[in-house]
Amino acid sequence: MLILIETLILFLGFLCLSLSLSRHYNQVAPKKRLSTRNLWLYRISGYILLLLAGIYAVYEWGFTLGLVYWCAIATIVSLLITLTLTFKPRWLAIMKVISLRTK
Amino acid sequence: MKPRFRQSMNWLHTWAGFSFGWLLYFIFVTGTVGYFDSEIDRWMKPEITVVEQLDNQSSVLSAAELQLQQLAPESSQWYISLPTARMPFVQIQWLQLANKETNTPRGWQEKYLDVSSGVTNSVRETAGGETLYRMHYNLHYVPELVGYILTSLATMLMLIGLVTGVVIHKKIFIEFFTFRAKKGIRSWLDIHNIFSVLPLPFHLMITYSGLLLLMGVTMSSIIDVRYGEGRENHKKFYDEAQLDIKEVQFIDLAPEALSIETVLADVAVRYKDQNVSFIGFIERGSENEHYEIWFDKYEGIHLVSAVEYRVNGDKVEIEIATEKAGSAARIYDLFEHLHEGLFANIYLRWLYFISGLLGAAMVATGMILWIKKRQINGASARPFSVISIIERINIGIILGLPIAIAGYFWGNRLLPVNIEHRADWEVHCFFIALLASICFCLCRSVKKSWLNLLWFTAGVYLLTPLVNMVTTEHSIIGSIKRNDWLMLGFDLSMLFFAGCFALAAIIVQRKNAKAQANEEHIVIQQKLKESAY
């Protein structure tokens, strides 16, 4: 389903962006220090993923409807990430393991 | 004037937000509920027969036409609505002219058709989901114009609140995902920021488009100057400004054969992938007699407008309205469609709904913050201080609105079917419940108000499907068996919201218990210290 793919890309994008902030990086990985290199890797990949999600949405649904889907799903996804970071940050560590392995 | 720009904007944000905060909360909640107005309509009219697809369209159409002929032979406009995803029933509507003798005003009448028997169902008179939705700009108990002006004013202040909010939020990117729980006012500020910044595209869109939708009222002076005052002159403006681009074609249909059936047959061939939602028989008996076809599926954001069939000379011609002629009207249309979200499928509709609720939560947390900031000096220690009264009214409104909506639904099921002005009484139930919630809070302490009302809201939503089951022949199991998805979806949503309120009640209860335990701990420590001396 198209919405799920869009949600997944946006989720990964916002996750990377949140991990690029040391406050949230430390919530997910309490003992580690966010190096400058990782900060920029996370930030750039986050923005690229957001852009990809936008391109995918426009490709799939047309310009106006695509932007609507992009904004609406971005809202929900960032809300979920925010709440998870506050209450269960370890759940996001699973994803982080996958992404940190490549860096 | 404040010395610095940001302080100035802070002041503006606080007061623009506070002045119409409660009205904005009302507008957000009723408007958000309005995204599911058709679904709510179905639940509030349990007598209608639900049908997903018509197997025998022609016999249903003849039955509908027969009913219209019996009920409204003189009416100039007839509509038959065919089943669509959000409105799975057959409905007939007609325009009834004002009748001085029976003192009936000019208005639309509607009846639901029972497809198996061909006669109309007798459906309870109800305000329906539609009234709940319309309240978000008409308000209630005030003339429509007053409602429009107040709503538009609130919306303008909302827009100011949004823009100033972004300006004063210095760390908007750094704190994008930040929610520090259990830290008092800091937590409230964090959550207010979350509810405002994350759905910011939605908030900006809904506020700006809301202003546009009411611009005919707020900027009516401009139309007055160019076209003159009064309804007739304003109509000239709208006809010019909202002119549609129309494609006209002649088609292969004999003028004598032009009827509802032949029109639908032609539409089925010409627009194979589209479902027809309405067919209208307009200006019957006049020279301009024609048929209108409206579609259910929309192409992206742009609604395909009506296709009209009429006799022109000795041929039949069709007129397809594609889009607006003027670019300003096209932009207006785009914003109108974005605001109303009629194009949305079920998933996008839920996203709209959640974004709307986040907007309501933004306003509510803003009000709570305003109150908490003024309690720092212990001003609310006296129970009748202004701030403590405002705080209680605040709780009454924040939780009172969900209770009022549930009260509205209960009124629909419990009010006797035959009382006069039943629809009005359902709305009275809404406002009585709201008023009762506010009065309750004014009599209780703040902590107890939150807890009691949260549990009460949870209970009343939990029991709504039960009330449905007891007062009608619908139930959750029954809806599954009958494929009545709208009824089922509504009942399940009620249970879901009950769960959410119960969860909130449990969280507040635990927080109170902890605070209580802390206080007792401190008191014991004090006593130990004193006894040690």
Automatic annotation (TrEMBL), chain A:
Keywords on record: Membrane, Transmembrane, Transmembrane helix
Source organism superkingdom: Bacteria
Membrane is among the record's keywords: yes
Transmembrane segments: 39-59, 66-87
InterPro entries membership: DUF3325 (IPR021762)
Pfam family, one: DUF3325
Entry protein name: DUF3325 domain-containing protein
TrEMBL record, chain B:
InterPro entries linked: PepSY-ass_TM (IPR005625)
Coiled-coil region list: none
Transmembrane segments: 12-36, 145-168, 189-211, 350-371, 392-410, 425-443, 450-470, 485-508
Top-level taxon in the UniProt lineage: Bacteria
Keywords attached to this entry: Membrane, Transmembrane, Transmembrane helix
Annotated protein name in UniProt: Iron-regulated membrane protein
Annotated organism of origin: Thalassotalea profundi
